[in-house]
## 1
Amino acid sequence: MISSIYHAIIYQPILNILVFFYKTIAFYDFGLAIIFSTIFIRILLYPVFHKSAKHQMVMQKIQPKIEKLKETHKDNKEKQLKATMDLYREHGINPMSGIGLLLVQLPVLIALYQIFFDKFTPAISSNLYSFVGAPATFNTSFLGLINLEQSSILIVSLAAILQYFQGKMMLPKIEKGRELSTAESVGRQMVYLGPVLTLLIFMNLPAAISLYWAASTLFTIFQQKIIKQQFGPNEELGNFRKKTD
């Protein structure tokens, strides 16, 4: 049952989107088809990603308040948790939004891996919609230079670099002389750990998956830039919520 649902609402639509772009504006370049498909998917899911990015930025803004609550209720973990959750509700944020964002991305990555694992055999044509149709041949290269069925250290490195800049953008400025909290220290370490994990996870996977991740991360960078323009460094949280809700 779950497999059928996944096939109908994830795998098959992504396959058809890829083939559609491949045969049209990508000019039979599968790398370009992946990039166009990524942009299309991210536009469809823009509200989900936008809300998640907004929540992350608000959480950075209220981090000093969270640390103050920890200090105030340091002897009572139950009160500390309740006060923290009340603070989240006050600012309309969900602390689990970052995990939700990853869960949205995961089915797309699995579908892409499965598509390239199947290696575009003739049998895959049975999953194409009638208005899409199968191309005569599949050229699984990017700009005629990189075979997307094989791993590519170049694309993996690009994805890792883009992820580093994305993480760097999300870091708030720290007042000179102020000691970092444990959460802030972990957040800053993740800026470096994230790209390392990207290298380790994607370096042995088809370059198509790394290309999707790189394109998706680049889209996120532009999305975060838009939100940062809406939310200046000295702007009040209340004004920010009015702008982005």
## 2
Amino acid sequence: MQWLARAAVREGARLRAPASHTRRVNTSAFDFELPRERIAQSPVEPRDHARLLVREPGDGSLQDARVADLPDLLREGDLLVLNDTRVIPARVRGQRSTGGQVELLFLEPISPGSETWRAMVKPAKKMKPGDRVACAGGVQAEFLEREEGSGYWRARLVGEAHQTTEELMAIAGAMPLPPYIERLATAEDSERYQTVYARVPGAVAAPTAGLHLTNELLARLDAAGVQRTTVTLHVGAGTFLPVTADRIEDHRMHSERFVLSEETAAAVRACRERGGRVVPVGTTSARVLESCAIHDPAFDRDVVEARAGATEIFLHPGSGPRVADGLFTNFHLPKSTLLMLVASFIGLEATQELYRTAIEREYRFYSYGDASLLWRAT
């Protein structure tokens, strides 16, 4: 894993997008009404049979397709960038000695390698330091202290043997489906709320665009000459939070941990050299690429350098993208930073048209919903 050490060029750095120099945009511009029946509660099977709304790079027209059509929609020499994070079974339910129910969502360790994790807790105010609740499989959740400001708890899981918190999550936890999926996670979600190329444990939400890809589709893309590489960004619970500030430039972005290796930096540079297009699969891959952007005068274009750390980059109209040429992504929540990221690629008006069309044509929305393929406005 020498490349990981070399990739940590700016380990721990918190990277932000450059300030926007365009007109101010109100958060209300990213609001829309979505019929409840358009929120997907279960995924399409097989994965790549989900619908795909394609915004053509020339005239911006919107065409209906399927995810399985990707080999025909991309070109030989294009580069797909996949997020290989793996979702952990971070939602743990327990019972207090009084019989009351408690739910924890373990977000991340308080420091690398620590068995104490930061957790969202319901009901948070009823818990006290030192409390323990009984969870499945003989596991207990122990509450250590509540953080000031964030309201998160510091907690850990305790088992009968010397097991790590992640090992105990596998015993007592469930997949952390987002709140708009109005059902409990099932055994099928353990496989389906995970990309087929998931490798590095650490996410508490799936990079959902990648849920559409199958091994068979990846093989067809290989045969079509479409290249691919990976980044790692551990998706946090903040990805679901709406922007509450009146103006988007006043929003404070959540932080997420990432790694972009030297191999991936080389793949992006090679794509530039052969005239291909860089296409992140999902907003998370786009955030990593743009967090690592540098200018290369040889191409008079931006490429990426190997980095590892935490990013707070906020992509919105007037701020990005620099590296990515296209975007393959799902349909996102109103007033979300993910929707604003889409608008950073194609503009506000085109984003509003895209979502109006998706609703009119009865596309399925959010994590288990359909997808779109967009090309950066020039």
## 3
Amino acid sequence: WRNERAVSDFDRRHVFNSAWLYELPFGKNKPFLGSAGGAMNHIVGGWSLNGIFSAYTSEPWTVTSGSRTNNASHVSRAALVGNTLPSTELKEQAGSVGPVLFTREQRLQYFAAPGPGENGMGRNMFRGPGYWNFDLAAQKNFQLTERFRLQFRAETFNTFNHPSFQNPSSASSGSNQITNARFGETCCEAVAPNTTSNIIQTGESGRVVQFGLKLSF
């Protein structure tokens, strides 16, 4: 039972979320161009920016052997060769889609199938890459009449087109089994960030740009 004692599969040690809104100081009754009216105020006034930034530390994952060395219904975890845990920094490897946590050489150097009746190393001994995402939007309000107001929005999700890599056990191209040819691969984020899930249900996590108009009355 001692090998089962570990952090939960969804453990993220640190989570940071922030949201902000900034009204640009231009246009009627603002510090700059405060006396602007008519067409000039429609151009420079009523603008604001808002953004969302999220950053999470990595989730833990387990290296499995791909063999049922412990019993006939359970794939055991891999055995650690030696007493040193290999580094999980992202690395490039020829023939792999995206970076890997362990190269083929490291797989042979650090991991092996456990002996008969053994279950290998402890669970969740490794952590994958962290995650961060930044969304940015600009909006402009037009006061058409006393009753009607028009809002224009330009929004970007994953503004910097930053790739998010997963644990091998969760990656769309990757595996946590040492017998799998895709062992250690981390590509790519298979589920879209929360801020884009309603925009792109396919789960693509690349940059998304959208424009919108909203009439309020």
